[in-house]
Design a protein that fits this description.
- By secondary structure, this protein is of the alpha/beta class.
- 42% of the residues lie in helices and 12% in strands.
- Helix 5 packs parallel to helix 6 and helix 12 crosses helix 16.
């Protein structure tokens, strides 16, 4: 079966329109995606599990022509969401043989949307880091410069979309894990409102409600159309976002009117911001003014140290629970098979009391209330920041140094949570991560929708994502603004080139 040669120029919505018009067959799209993956993946390491035969069978079968992404090639992030029949390793060696026997509800909705899965994408172990460099599968690289990171934890998916292996790929976001790689790779990445997309049947929520699943795309309309296809509560959901007034796809094509947009280049959690990000922010502020919006500088006040410590306490506890479930799936005991950093987080969790965990959650809740009050008191429609504190980092930049790695390994082997807490320093671990991601995690805690758009680029030809945060449950405003920005400063013509 011949591939569709024009495949890379279309977004998912465009490909589905061609399928419905009879201009191309789904089987041709599958072959085009296979060709693209096979050409790019040896250099990127974005796809770690391939299911080409199953995709070919599905592409040759009968598909629902009314599905919004009928016949569109798709990749699944190897974390959190079960996809029946495909391994779910979560970036860890201990789960190398685990294959779910069911679909998560979000996977069911992706399938109903018409996508055809061709494989699974790389992630850091349990999605813990803002870069995708698991020991078990190796690093995923950036299609714009193979020396650089693709970001994390949805780094495999973002790199695959940027390299045009697929137009749409699954991701999830607990501290920026959709938006971080979207910025690094120059694609569109939305973290929806808490409870907008389903987490069942295996979870009520993830990371105490901070994490939510969605997709990475090249176009705003694909992002909106997929949210239309997947949003809404599932059976037994502990909570869910208020339903939208009308389809998100319709919002993406609607002018936003004059918005009150606050902006800040001050790092809310870290300490420094790269000049390229500040220049991109200034360029965006000027563009928004030209588009008629009211733009002013303002920033919420954040207790950096208190938030960082509380967030890491929560993540440590969730990581420890993930490890225990992984051991159960693998039928193993002990800490073998996990990376040293993950094992130290487990020890930190085990050394903390239940009251310490409860107090950490109260800090996060107070932060959420403060952010909500900031939007309400200033009558802010959208808050703008850079997505990251700098351009994409070199691969390995956030890896422990030789001495740090040795210390982590010693701490993990000593199996002493108190010693680990004293020597590793939970605050130090948090500070290192938040220097790179000083804005994203705050809005996981508040539950607000947040979107990274790729309309700014630096002189080196690297994407600098711009980060737009909306009011709770107000993806509609973000989509209207994103559609306007995509038209004013389009990015679809930019395509990375595979060196010969």
């Amino acid at each position: 079966m011949a591939a569709f040669k024009e495949y890379p120029i279309y977004d998912g919505t465009g490909l589905a329109e061609l399928v419905r018009a009879g201009a191309v067959k789904p089987s041709e799209l599958v072959e085009a995606a296979v060709e693209r993956i096979e050409a790019w993946n040896p250099r990127l390491n974005a796809v770690i599990e391939k299911c080409y035969d199953a995709a070919r069978r599905e592409g040759a079968g009968t598909l629902d022509p009314t599905a919004p992404f009928c016949g569109v090639p798709f990749l699944v992030k190897d974390l959190v969401m079960a996809w029946k029949g495909l391994p779910m390793r979560c970036g860890t060696r201990i789960l190398r043989d685990f294959v779910p026997d069911h679909d998560a509800e979000l996977a069911v909705r992706f399938r109903k949307a018409g996508v055809i899965a061709l494989g699974k994408t790389n992630v850091p172990e349990f999605g813990l880091l803002p870069v995708t460099e698991p020991e078990s599968f190796g690093p995923t690289r950036n299609p714009w410069d193979f020396r650089l990171t693709s970001g994390g934890s949805s780094g495999g998916s973002a790199a695959a979309v940027a390299a045009r292996m697929v137009p749409v790929a699954h991701g999830d976001d607990g501290g920026g894990s959709i938006r971080i790689p979207a910025s690094c790779c120059g694609v569109v990445g939305l973290k929806p409102t808490r409870g907008r997309n389903p987490m069942g049947p295996d979870r009520g929520d993830a990371w105490q409600g901070c994490a939510v699943g969605h997709v990475l795309t090249r176009s705003v309309r694909d992002c909106a159309a997929m949210l239309d296809a997947t949003c809404g509560p599932d059976a037994g959901a502990p909570y869910f976002a208020p339903p939208p007034a009308r389809p998100f796809l319709a919002e993406a094509g609607t002018p936003p009117g004059r918005l009150r947009i606050a902006f800040t280049g001050s790092p809310l959690l870290g300490s420094t911001v790269h000049p390229d990000c500040l220049a991109a922010l200034a360029s965006t502020v000027a563009l928004l003014g030209e588009l008629g919006h009211e733009v002013f500088e303002a920033a919420p006040e954040i207790d950096k140290r208190g938030f960082s410590s509380a967030f890491m306490t929560m993540i440590s506890a969730e990581t420890s629970a993930e490890m225990e479930e992984a051991r159960q799936h693998a039928g193993r005991r002990g800490s073998g098979g996990f990376e040293a950093t993950t094992r130290v987080l487990d020890l930190l969790a085990r050394s903390a009391s239940a009251s310490t965990f409860a107090k950490a959650l109260r800090v996060l809740h107070r932060t959420s209330r403060s952010l909500g009050a900031f939007f309400e008191s200033r009558r802010i429609d959208v808050l703008l920041t850079p997505t990251l504190a700098g351009p994409p980092l070199p691969v390995g930049a956030l890896a422990p140094t030789g001495l740090q790695a040795a210390m982590l390994e010693i701490l993990a082997r000593l199996n002493s949570g108190r010693l680990a807490a004293a020597l590793a320093g939970i605050d130090r671990i948090a500070e290192q991560a938040f220097e790179f991601i000083p804005w994203t995690a705050l809005f996981n805690v508040s539950g607000q929708p947040a979107l990274s758009l790729p309309h700014e680029w630096n002189a080196a030809g690297l994407p600098i994502g711009m980060h737009y945060i909306g009011g709770y449950a107000d993806e509609a405003t973000l989509f209207r603004l994103a559609g306007q920005l995509e038209e004013a400063r389009p990015w679809s013509g930019r395509e990375p080139v595979l060196p010969s």
